[in-house]
Amino acid sequence: MRKINVRVIPRARQNKIDIDENGVYRVHITAAPVDGAANVAVIKMMAEYFGVPKSQIKIIRGETSRDKIIEIPG
């Protein structure tokens, strides 16, 4: 398992993932940060990006923050 730093940008125009110069994944999602909808969208996008099942991705820290640490297999 590896841990990656993620910065979430909710209410973006489109869903996309960028990596900044510090190696932080910037996840732009159209979902609003209401009732966990943004977290669900982040997990779905990261699963597609890394080619792993959604059930294997876990938010370790930052459930209610824009800055998160996510654990991904491999």
Q: How would you describe this protein?
A:
With 74 residues, this protein is an alpha+beta fold. It has one domain: YggU-like (Conserved Hypothetical Protein Mth637, Chain: A, 2-Layer Sandwich), CATH 3.30.1200.10. The protein has one helix and five strands. Strands 2-3-1-5-4 form a five-stranded mixed β-sheet, with helices on one face. The longest helix is centred in the middle third of the chain and has 14 residues, at 37-50. It is globular.
Give a nutshell description of this structure.
This protein is an alpha+beta fold and 74 residues long.
Write the layout of secondary structure elements.
Elements: E1 2-9, E2 16-19, E3 25-28, H1 37-50, E4 58-61, E5 67-72
Parallel strand pairs: 1-3
Antiparallel strand pairs: 1-5, 2-3, 4-5
Q: Compute the number of structural domains.
A: 1
Distance between the termini: 5 Å
What structural category do the secondary elements indicate?
alpha+beta
Number of helices: 1
Largest sheet: 5 strands, mixed
Q: Which spans have pLDDT < 50 for at least 5 consecutive residues? A: none
The name of the CATH architecture is 2-Layer Sandwich
At the fold tier of CATH, the topology name is Conserved Hypothetical Protein Mth637, Chain: A
Summarize the amount of helix as a percent range.
Answer: 10-25%
The CATH class: Alpha Beta
Query: What proportion of the residues form beta strands (DSSP E)?
Result: 35-45%
Mean pLDDT: 95
Can you tell me the CATH superfamily?
Answer: YggU-like
| DSSP summary, beta strand count | 5
Radius of gyration: 11 Å
Report the order of strands and helices: EEEHEE
Which strand order does the major sheet show? 2-3-1-5-4
Shape from CA axes?
globular
